[in-house]
Amino acid sequence: MFARSRALLTHLVVVAGIVTFLLLLWKFDPIRVWSRLVSFGWGFAVLMPFQIFDHMLNAWGWKLSFPPESARRANFWDLVRVRIAGDGVNYLTPSANIGGEFVRPGMLRSSLPDDVKITSVLVAKVTQSVGQAFFILSGLGYLLHAHLFDFEGPQATLGAFGVGSILLGLVVGVSLLVMEPPPWFHKRFPQAVEASAGVRGLLKNYLQRHPFRMTASVVFFMFGYAWGAAEVWLICRFLGLDIGLETAFSIEFLSNLVDSLAFWVPAKLGTQEGGKTAIFAGMGLSPEIGFTLGLVRHVREVSWAAMGLALYAAHRRGARKT
Q1: Which of 101, 100, 78 is nearest to 91 (CA)?
Q2: CA dist., res. 221 & res. 256, Å (int)
Q3: I need a labelling partner for 225 at 20 to 30 A (CA). Which of 18, 62, 218, 298 fits?
Q4: Above 50 in pLDDT, residue 166?
Q5: What is the Cα–Cα distance from 136 to 166, expressed in whole angstroms?
Q6: How far from chain centre, in Å, is Cα 70?
Q7: How far out from the chain centre does Cα 189 lie?
């Protein structure tokens, strides 16, 4: 019953996203949008490899999620490869951005124990989420102070509440993982308690012994999200809109807010273009360019996600042969 309801909800979300995209495309005239994409031209050749720096920053954030003695055995470029693959699974599957986390430990080529790999993925997911939340909250504070965005009604309050709820959920989730399960849970799910004992112990040990590494991991993931502002600036330049870094960062702050509140939408259907359109309108910029920016970024995201799925498929083929 739950699986059927979830599948129905996923289908409704996909349909709503497609309808939103088509309505916006019709509003801005498909021919004009196409001409803007054509004018972007060789900008795609610059934009596509630009994303590798984001993956590198995220890989450093993940590497810091290992204890020092284990991090030395985790090859940096292997972490980059697995990050790309996991992000591809997260992006293209309706898994609320967690499906890719399950494939990461098995794809690592390191000889580290499975418990250590799984714990690093858990820590990295927490530090990445915290990094995104702090990035958004700091951006909201800046936008409210500088009056760069025309917030209507309770929008800022709802945004801050949504991000704060994510942070609270992370704290509660990590606490439940680290704490010893209650007796009734032991009786009802003895196998789950036994299977997770190693990971829970390693997670607790990491949190207690390596607070500075965890903080540094959060910072690297924040840099990864901040790198998106450079991409926004680059895309706008190719689209003929000259904006400063301050505006680019503001657009990226709000884009991350939209992404965090709509994390359950597969492939950001409708939310990418619709979000950028609303953000540009709220900042007094051209909504049409905002829609086109969202479309360009969508092309980049789908391309990298397809590459990630190809890496995952290659790993699966190799695993079957062995």
Answers
A1: 100
A2: 13
A3: 18
A4: yes
A5: 12
A6: 25
A7: 32
Instruction: State pLDDT tens for residues 210-232.
Output: 889 999 999 999 999 999 999 99
Listed residue (86, 78, 124) closest to 102, CA to CA: 86
Q: Could you read off the pLDDT of 170-218 as tens digits, one per residue?
A: 666 665 565 666 676 666 767 766 666 677 778 788 888 888 999 999 9
Pair 116, 202: CB distance under 8 Å = yes
Q: Report the alpha-carbon distance of residue 25 to residue 186 in Å, rounded.
A: 54
CA separation for the pair 269, 257 (Å, rounded): 16
Residue 165 clears pLDDT 90, i.e. is over it = no
- Map tokens 């993982």 to a residue: 177
Closest-CA residue to 244 (of 225, 220, 252, 39): 252
CA pair distance 254, 275, nearest whole angstrom: 8
SS3 content of the chain, % helix, strand, coil (to 5): 85, 0, 15
Every domain of the chain and the residues it spans: 2-316
Which residues touch 51 (CB under 8 Å, ≥6 apart)?
Answer: 231, 300, 304
Place of tokens 């969202």: 294
Q: State how far the Cα of 297 lies from the Cα of 179, in Å rounded to an integer.
A: 41
**Helix 271-282 vs helix 245-261: crossing angle, to nearest 10:** 140
Structure token pair of residue 211: 């607070």
Mean pLDDT computed over every residue of the chain: 82
Per DSSP, 28 falls in state H
pLDDT of 2 > 50? The answer is no
**Which pTM value belongs to this model?**
0.83
- Residue 300 exposure: Cα atoms within 13 Å on the Cβ side: 25
Q: Which long-range contacts (CB under 8 A, 24 or more apart) does 118-122 make?
A: 118/199, 119/199, 119/202, 119/203, 119/206, 120/62, 120/65, 120/66, 120/70, 120/74, 121/62, 121/65, 122/177, 122/199, 122/203
